[in-house]
Amino acid sequence: MVVVFPETDVHYPTDLGLLWDSMRCLIRIWASLADARGVKGWRQWQYWMRETKRHYNNVRNSKRRGRSPTCIKRYLSVCEMLVQRAEHTLEQVIGSELPFADVLKVKQLEELIEHARRFSDQVRRRLLDGEKIPHKEKVFSIFEPHTRWISKGKAGCTQELGVPVCVVEDQYRFLLHHQIMWDGTDVDYAVSAVSQTQQRFADFSACSFDKGFHSVPNQAQLAEQLEQCALPRKGRLSVAAAEHEAQDWFKAARKQHPAIESKINCLEHCGLDRVFDHGKEGFAPAVSLSVLSANLKRLGTLLRDKKRKSLARRQRLRAA
After folding, report:
1. Fewest C-beta atoms under 10 Å: which of 77, 98, 104, 151?
2. Rounded to whole angstroms, how far apart are CA atoms 55 and 24?
3. In 3-state terms, what secondary structure has residue 145?
4. Packing angle of the helix pair 216-225, 190-200 (nearest 10 deg)
């Protein structure tokens, strides 16, 4: 069992950039809706789009000068003024009957107003008040809000923006199960992944894990579920743990475990390197199709090798 890290189609997130994303989408959708419903107050939407972008560029370009507080305050004042105007005109539109297409636009506007409020507050707290924003409050994309900040600690790759996926591979290099980790860490998915795999494959009784799945409760529960649980512990080992990991079957399982890296590379070539589908509704099917593609590719490889051996055997018989 191992974790794959497919990336989502997002740019590098900063609170300044995410605020600009929220504002440009907010202004554009409001202009479309106001024109269709005859709502006043957005006739100069192109002007406000240029003004917002100009103030955003001023803040972004002032980084070398320590990000001038004056530029930041002007940028925030323009954004907050437009958000207040959007909230005011939204109240007028909600009270009337709307077609389905406009209802979807209203829902998008409500989400964008919420995003704009959040990022405006974070910009003020971080750049003006010098506060460090807690990780749990951060959103890394308004277009793909399920995106997570993944730090694997590898050289040359400080972070990735995506959603980790837990996969289970058998001894024949087929993928038996996959589980998208929308939240939580590896520790939270080890037991559930094994349980779901055993529901579909009753003879699944042995498994090798990465160290990231280790926890004391996981060690106890997986030992009950599996006959052979090759889950290495972190840190210095106790005498009992050292004896457990010194067994021949444990060593053999750990030696075979790095072979799954080739399956990770195969999944990346099957579309799991970067997922371009939008939302959770697009991400989940894309992951499933990538897993299916990898299994079909493995099946094709086995059939091809079998055919080659059969042809080679025939040639030897003819030569004899």
Report:
1. 151
2. 13
3. coil
4. 10
Closest CA to 19 of 161, 104, 121, 129: 121
Say if residue 39's pLDDT is above 90: no
What ranges in 164-230 are assigned the alpha helix state H?
Answer: 190-200, 216-225
Strand partners, 275: 8
Locate 192 and state its tokens. Answer: 């559930």
Predicted TM-score (pTM) of this structure: 0.84
Distance CA 88, CA 162 (A): 36
Strand partners, 162: 7, 148
At 151, the amino acid letter reads S
Token representation of residue 124: 């003020």
Q: What is the pLDDT of residues 18-27, one digit of tens each?
A: 999 999 999 9
Strand 165-169 versus strand 160-162 pairing type:
unpaired
19 torsion bin: left (phi>0), alpha (psi -120 to 50), beta (else): alpha
